[in-house]
Design brief:
Elements (H helix, E strand, L loop, with lengths): L2 H17 L2 H4 L4 E6 L5 E7 L9 H10 L8 H9 L7 E5 L10 E4 L10 E2 L5 E2 L8 E2 L4 E6 L7 E2 L5 E2 L15 E3 L5 E4 L3 E5 L4 E4 L1 E4 L10 E3 L2 E4 L8 E4 L3 E3 L3 E2 L2 E4 L3 E3 L3 E11 L3 E3 L1 E9 L3 E3 L1 E9 L3 E3 L5 E9 L2 E7 L7 E5 L2 H12 L2 H32 L4 H39 L3 E8 L3 E5 L2 E4 L4 E8 L4 E5 L7
Parallel strand pairs: 15-17, 16-18, 17-19, 18-21, 19-22, 20-23, 21-23, 22-24, 23-25, 24-26, 25-27, 26-28, 27-29, 28-30, 29-30, 29-31, 30-32, 31-33
Antiparallel strand pairs: 1-2, 2-3, 4-8, 5-6, 7-13, 8-12, 9-10, 11-12, 13-14, 32-35, 33-34, 35-36
Helix pairs in contact: 5-7, 6-7
């Protein structure tokens, strides 16, 4: 309060004292105080003891202090109240500072957790209605959810100068499920495996196997998963299934594209319709394949292959009731095994064995002919035997002559011993080469085409650099190559896979 204001109030009070009735001066105004239930506000009513009674600022402050109200006193409002004599009206004479509660933390999902399927928009603005985003892939260590932690609040103060603590914000709980882990800083939920995200209202799971509970068609859209995929129905024409691991299709595939880094298994096989493609980093397994293009880094196992184009890094093995290969082209790195290859109508069927290992062995077979090596060994062995006889005679002569010309005899024996060692080594080298050549010939028989029932005339057969077009039917026959030609031989029990 300014000095002028104080002087004015003093003059006012003095004047009032001169006019006041001495008996009235002893009467005090009545104060009615009401406190809010949270002790954050005080309300005051003043009833003067007589008309024109002066109620001073200090009187109200003293009254509030006597009632322990010391915080948030509204001094300006009280002065205005007193100056304007707004008695009988309610005065807010003190206000506390309410606490500022903390802000709740929240979880932010880093994937689209909308259960609805939506077509994917291409970069050119068109929409791919076959890509509906059914599979939500994530790599190990990928972020599923992030937490924004709760923000702290601020304590308040009531009119009694007492601290009113703030309410802390709620820290949310991660929807942790199978194959998930919380980060070290506690602020992220991470995938613990490569897989697909499975989301429910309360839980996020990561599975390394994605299950399509029906067909892969326009209802599901294409499937592209980093883990394995199980399709409980069919894969219809024009759609694809891709997986970072294995694919298992319980029905069949029709004119579709199936790609897996692991094994592809199709229970009922595939009708490729001339455009269907199978590409596997592991094996391809199925009952029946027709008009399909098939690539496998390992083997293919089936009952029937018809009019397919097949390239495998291992073997083609047909087993089952028919075990039939007819029409198309089939290339394996090691073996082709079937009951029947080709047909009686001479449908063009091309079968071939081709690999770097086979090429290397055929080169070795050509360079290390067994007959030539056996002749070399005979000559070397004869030379060694002859020298051994001469060496024996020489040794006896040295003993007979005793110490006569000992130096000369010593040099002679040393030279003879060296010659014997060289001849012996030559024999051993030829034996090793002959053993290797024999092993090569034996190993060549592992790279073969086998028809346990019949290989029909009209079949085009290629093994390594050699190609023949069969003019006759061959029953229970295996075919393998040497450096010179393709050899035909009966199928032995050891050939049966």
């Amino acid at each position: 309060m300014s000095i002028d204001a104080i002087d004015g109030a003093t003059d006012l009070n003095a004047a009032a004292s001169e006019q006041a009735d001495p008996a009235q001066e002893e009467l005090k105004p009545q104060f009615q105080l009401q406190i809010s239930t949270d002790n954050m506000a005080a309300y005051l009513r003043v009833t003067p003891a007589y008309p024109d009674q002066i109620v001073l600022f200090d009187d109200i402050i003293e009254y509030l202090t006597q009632n322990e109200i010391t915080y948030g006193v509204c001094e300006d409002a009280i002065r205005s109240f007193c100056q304007n004599k707004k008695f009988y009206s309610e005065l807010i004479c003190a206000k506390g500072d309410p606490p500022v509660d903390g802000t709740d933390g929240f979880i932010e999902y880093k994937f689209d957790h909308d259960a609805g399927l939506k077509p994917k928009e291409r970069e050119d603005g068109t929409v791919d209605f076959r890509d509906l985003g059914l599979v939500k892939n994530i790599s190990k260590g990928g972020v599923l959810c992030q937490m924004t932690p709760p923000k702290p609040g601020k304590d308040g103060m009531n009119i009694y100068n007492q601290i009113v603590p703030f309410v802390e914000g709620r820290r949310p709980t991660f929807p942790s499920g199978t194959n998930t882990v919380i980060s070290e800083d506690g602020l992220s939920l991470l995938a613990n495996v490569d897989g697909c995200i499975e989301f429910t209202k309360s839980t996020v799971n990561v599975s390394d196997v994605f299950i399509v509970r029906g067909d892969v068609d326009s209802a599901s859209g294409n499937i592209n998963a980093v883990g394995s995929v199980i399709v409980q129905g069919d894969v219809v024409e024009g759609f694809f299934v891709k997986a970072g691991k294995d694919i298992s299709i319980r029905g069949m595939a029709e004119g579709a594209t199936i790609e897996a880094k692991g094994t592809i298994s199709i229970s009922n096989g595939m009708n490729g319709m001339g455009k269907g493609i199978l590409r596997a980093g592991g094996n391809v397994v199925g009952k029946y394949f027709e008009n399909a293009i098939i690539f496998s880094d390992n083997d293919i196992y089936a009952d029937v292959l018809m009019n397919c184009k097949v390239t495998v890094g291992g073997s083609i093995v047909l087993k089952g009731h028919k075990a039939l290969m007819i029409g198309g082209s089939y290339q394996a790195a090691q073996k082709i095994f079937a009951k029947t290859i080709g047909s009686s109508s001479r449908t063009v069927t091309s079968v071939s064995i081709s690999s770097k290992e086979l090429t290397d062995m055929l080169v070795a077979d050509k360079e290390e002919g067994t007959a030539e090596l056996e002749n070399e060994l005979l000559k070397a062995q004869t030379a060694l035997n002859d020298f051994q006889e001469q060496f024996l005679i020489l040794s006896k002569q040295v003993l007979f002559h005793g110490q006569n010309d000992a130096q000369k005899q010593g040099l002679l024996m040393k030279a003879a011993t060296l010659k014997k060692s060289q001849l012996t080594e030559a024999v051993e080298v030829i034996k090793a080469r002959l053993k290797k050549a024999s092993e090569v010939k034996n190993n060549l028989t592992d790279y073969k085409i086998i028809g346990t029932n019949i290989v029909y005339a009209g079949t085009k057969m290629t093994i390594g650099p050699h190609t023949v077009n069969l003019n006759d039917d061959n029953s229970n026959t295996k075919f393998y190559a040497t450096s010179e030609k393709i050899v035909l031989a009966p199928v032995l029990p050891s050939d049966i896979m």
